[in-house]
Automatic annotation (TrEMBL):
Family per record: Belongs to the relA/spoT family.
Designated name of the protein: Bifunctional (P)ppGpp synthetase/guanosine-3',5'-bis(Diphosphate) 3'-pyrophosphohydrolase
PANTHER family for this protein: BIFUNCTIONAL (P)PPGPP SYNTHASE_HYDROLASE SPOT, GUANOSINE-3',5'-BIS DIPHOSPHATE 3'-PYROPHOSPHOHYDROLASE
Record-annotated TGS domain positions: 428-489
Length: 756
């Protein structure tokens, strides 16, 4: 074929000074002729890739990959990268990375075509017709949303990322190709502006490295982190790199001493293990120096080794050999074989005191575990010919990907979806037990609320407290590995917006937000209608029908989209019912819902607003005085919070009411009220052995429950015990107080009103 028939993008890649030409030329065997204008159209550019594919794909599959290359080369004709190379070099490099994972032909074709829809306007249908629907779906999942108008660039990025993750939930190959795409982009950041390089690096550390870690691709994680570190802090990277090389030269003798002693000890116990020195990455060194405020020498003063053996039994034998050879450091042993990490990682970790008091970290694992540790879910393709069982890893990955769909079903906003997904990208986990002994894996820092939602959404929605190892604990208590957790529920309980401050799983966060948006929305609308009916009654008119033209006029002038939105705004305190009611008076001028009108309208209000205490977002019982049925109450209107109810004698309410009297309204308890509210008590006790248990027993005997218990002064003698107890009403509270007084060591009981 003559030079005139070679595509311009291929010609650019073959120029004498092209970096890509140098890379390909270096990969060729010594007897391979150099490039010339008479080469076949795909042979030279694809030589390294095709050579790799011949090791595991059939000739027909390889021909399909060649055809995808020809299509991509034609589509990207004339398009250049910022480095000056022909654009086709990028999808070829991405495909080479995918080939290292031994992905199938469809995935490789998608890797070659991954930018043709986004950059060249090729339609998904054309790809499906030219190749197959499998390839078309993969390419579509990898394509950003460029043709839709978004309010901002960040919104577009978030929605594109959500699209990709949802495609990943259906086919994990989507994210593997995307990770390969990101890896090649990171490797070639030298050709882009520094500001863009820093932005891409930050996105890689925040999103793609955690995803790679979640899928068990540890080798990829390390390269992502080091490349991002080099791009973001180039000077710091160079200094650390040189310091690390110098340190290796200085400490070579000590390393040899450690390796020689281990290699001599293992065969004595019949173990033919492979000993590998573990290199600390520059990013991990930098991160540890920054977080722990340590010098370079302090961070590097720990040596790492990995021992790879043949069987599971040999892992534990090797551990025993090491513990006889060097003294183990207490608390520095972790068994990730018995309890694998969320991403399927398995290994024994131990830290020993080596020669000259030097700490040495060891990882011990089988060959199979090492494959999983380095390649994660990609090992399914790489090692599938070795009859390796990856069922556990695949199940864990499937559960995580399925959780993306669960989060998506509860989340309409793309940015919120990304936030929820980020929550789940934790590198570590805690392992807790159900009362029946089932092990539940949760992110580090997870709480009983996370545990409850991992069991079932209904359990999470109705949780009121938890038993951790048989003892009552608040729902925000961080769980640790080995805890046995039981959730106490109540059908009338509901999620609290405060839970969002301490939950750690994306599922819990999305379920809570979904509840607050849907169930509380309905409650707010109902409560808003109730307030409006009451305000209209005071004006001697009935609530207008839905087709009353005043509604439309009111909505238009106030910026609302519907009647329900107006009622919801009333319910959560963003509008005043009395002001909205005045708009329906015949021949009454429309007035604005401003603070200037509130005083006049409140003066006209005679009957109190009836509350039940379970209106959700519309009515908040203030935590400072924890009002309960039977208390004389008053409420303040707070935009976004609805009515905030206090006891009339609450010192906080008295102070606030003096400053803003116009915002306070009369309220009273309805005949039907929530019988599962709580209030706080200050119990002064003689702190003797068993006294708290006796108090708890008395509280339980009268049908109450301790929600929270705190003793600021834990010394013996006289102590103050702060209790939050669940009661039905004021009469029930009196019964609880009488029961507590029967304990001889109780000296005084006071109900707390105002912050203690």
């Amino acid at each position: 074929m003559g030079i005139k028939n070679v595509s311009s993008s291929l010609l650019h890649a073959l120029r004498e000074n092209s970096p890509f030409r140098k890379r390909v030329k270096k990969a060729l065997p010594t007897d391979t002729p150099s490039f010339s204008p008479d080469t076949t159209n795909t042979g030279d550019l694809l030589y390294p890739l095709i050579t790799q594919l011949k090791t595991y794909l059939s000739p027909s599959d390889i021909e399909q990959v060649r055809e995808a290359y020809r299509f991509a080369d034609k589509a990207h004709l004339g398009q250049m990268r910022s480095s000056g190379e022909a654009y086709i070099t990028h999808p070829v490099a991405v495909t080479e990375i995918c080939a290292q994972w031994k992905l199938d032909a469809s995935a490789l074709m998608a890797a070659l075509l991954h930018d043709v829809i986004e950059d060249q306007g090729i339609e998904k249908a054309e790809i499906a017709e030219r190749f197959n629907t499998d390839v078309a779906e993969l390419v579509d999942g990898l394509t950003k949303l460029e043709r839709i108008n978004f309010a901002s660039k960040s919104e577009q990025q978030a929605e594109s990322f959500r699209k990709m993750l949802l495609a990943t939930a259906k086919d994990v190959r989507v994210i593997l190709v995307k990770l390969a795409d990101r890896l090649h982009n990171m490797r070639t950041l030298g050709g882009v502006e520094p500001s863009k390089a820093r932005r891409v690096s930050n996105e890689t550390l925040e999103i793609y490295a955690p995803i790679a870690n979640r899928l068990g691709l540890n080798h990829l994680v390390r390269e992502f982190e080091d490349l991002a570190f080099e791009a973001y802090y180039p000077n710091r990277y160079r200094v650390l790199k040189q310091a690390l090389e110098n340190a290796h030269n200085t400490n070579r003798n000590l390393t040899h001493k450690i390796t020689d002693s281990i290699r001599a000890a293992l065969p004595a116990y019949g173990i033919e293990g492979k000993l590998i020195g573990r290199e600390k990455t520059l990013f991990s060194i930098h991160k540890k120096m920054k977080e722990q405020k340590k010098s370079f020498s302090e961070v590097l003063d720990i040596y790492g080794f990995r021992i790879i053996v043949n069987t599971l039994t040999e892992c534990y034998i090797a551990l025993g050999v090491l513990h006889q050879l060097y003294r183990p450091i207490p608390g520095k042993f972790k068994d990730y074989i018995a309890l694998p990490k969320i991403n399927g990682y398995q290994s024994l970790h131990t830290t020993l005191v080596g020669p000259y008091g030097t700490p040495i970290e060891f990882q011990i694992r089988t060959t199979h575990m090492d494959h999983i540790a380095e390649e994660g879910i990609a090992a399914h393709w790489i090692y599938k010919t070795d009859n390796m069982s990856l069922s556990d890893l695949q199940k864990q990955t499937h559960r995580w990907l399925q959780s993306l769909l669960d989060i998506q079903s509860q989340t309409s906003d793309s940015s919120e979806f990304i936030d929820n997904v980020k929550v789940d990208l934790f590198p570590d986990a805690v392992y807790v037990l159900t009362p029946k002994g089932k092990i539940i894996s949760l992110p580090r820092g997870a709480t009983p609320i996370d545990f409850a939602y991992s069991i079932h959404t209904k359990i999470g929605n109705h949780a009121i407290s938890a038993l951790i190892n048989g003892k009552e604990a608040p729902l925000k208590t961080p769980l640790v590995s080995g805890d046995t957790v039981q959730i106490i529920t109540n059908e009338k309980a509901a999620p609290n917006i405060q839970w969002l401050n301490f939950v750690r799983t994306g599922k819990a966060r999305s379920e809570i937000r979904h509840y607050l948006k849907t169930v509380n929305l309905e409650e707010s609308i109902q409560f808003g209608e109730k307030l409006l009916r009451q305000a209209l009654k005071e004006l001697n008119i009935d609530i207008p029908s839905k087709d009353d033209p005043t509604w439309e006029k009111l909505a238009k002038e106030s910026g609302a989209h519907s009647i329900d939105e107006i009622l919801m705004d009333i319910g959560v305190g963003r509008r005043l019912a009395a002001v909205v009611a005045r708009r329906f008076l015949i021949d009454s001028p429309l007035i604005a819902t401003s603070a200037a009108d509130i005083d006049e309208l409140n003066a006209a209000r005679s009957s109190p607003i009836l509350i039940q205490g379970n209106e959700g977002q519309s009515v908040t019982l203030s935590p400072c005085c924890t009002p309960i049925p039977g208390d004389n109450v008053i409420a303040v209107i707070r935009p976004g919070y609805g009515l905030v109810v206090h006891t009339e004698d609450c010192p906080i309410a008295i102070g606030q009411r003096a400053k803003e009297p116009e915002r306070w309204v009369s309220v009273a308890w309805d005949q039907e009220y929530n019988k599962h509210l709580s209030t706080r008590l200050l119990v002064t006790i003689q702190n003797e052995k068993g006294v708290i248990g006796r108090i708890a027993g008395q509280i339980a005997s009268v049908g109450s429950n301790i929600i929270r218990l705190h003793m600021p002064d834990e010394s013996m003698g006289i102590a103050d015990l702060q209790l939050t107890v669940q009661v039905e009403d004021r009469n029930h509270l009196a019964t609880v107080i009488r029961a507590i007084r029967q304990v001889p060591q109780v000296l005084k009981i006071v109900r707390i009103k105002g912050y203690y």
